[in-house]
User: Fold these one by one.
Assistant:
Number 1:
Amino acid sequence: MKLKYFGTAAAEGVPALFCKCDLCQEARKKKGRDIRTRSQSLIDDQLLIDFPGDSYLHFLKEDYNLADIEHLIITHGHSDHFYPEDLVMRMSGYSNSLDTKLTVYGNERVASFYQRVFDLEGRMDEDRLVFQLVHPFETFEAGCYHITPLLADHDKKETCLIYQILDG
């Protein structure tokens, strides 16, 4: 498997929006490798892990074709890992000439955030975008991958997940 990390920072990023600490000041000055965006990864140019608000920046900077991604797994509902408002841009009227459907996989909280965004939009385009609820320890298939959600100890108010991903 080929794993690309697009972002490795926590929710605030580096430099943080409102921070004046030495680390953030230095990152602002140096730029380049010292800038850290929010968590997102891509496996084999096919399987996307997490969808933060920085996804648009990652798409531009890393020069991969987001329209061709068919599977997106979400670890948990915090906005630095899941920003569903940008998924609306996959629907007709916002994007054209799509020939793939994106399946988003996540827990109950991710499902509720996903549904809220499309309720606010007032429509859903299931030819282009669908959601699949996943549960800890229940393996599912996404393309050529066998994925098993495992429990992550991150937020007591949510069933946070990490994933075991096998490609055969």
Number 2:
Amino acid sequence: MRKLAILGASGHGKVVADIAELNGYDVIFFDDAFPTKEKVEHWQIIGCSTDLLNSAHDYEICIAIGNNLIRQQKQVQLKQAGGRFPVIAHPNAAISRYAMIAEGAVVMAGATINAFAQVKCGVIVNTCAVVEHDCMLNEFCHISPNATLAGGVEVGKCAWVGAGAVVKQLVSVNGYSVIGAGSVVINDIPERATAVGVPAKIKEV
């Protein structure tokens, strides 16, 4: 049985572990709360991120950390150390044979990724999210539960689309931006902006 090392023993990590087991993996956890925290539910935590870094070449790895910037940092470090990053996709996700999904991406139960969508490395497509045809999800972005991206949407690097948000076709949500839960995006969102509401408007800092 293949071993999957999961970095991050949070709620997100538990969901990743469940999906991994459905795909035939034997799961072990690493978390920086170790050794104070020794288990997550019934799964053992066997070390911290430094321990995983020192043994990265021994494992397939999933970074189960919701923070996009930290997930990116950890995956880059562990890849340089020889880690391998499979795609972890729930068996009940609907993924087109014409979609492209890159290393380290996670696709949760009920998610849909349609034809010619591109999902780059380290992306999270969360529970029941819809990624329509020809979408481009750039590195380490996160599409939250029940969010819907219509056809041809581009989501930038490390951007976050909140739960239940809707993004109109051909709109760009640029890098490091945040779309609030339940928002409806009908215009392009600039880099590092936060947009909320129906229709979504840029929130002033």
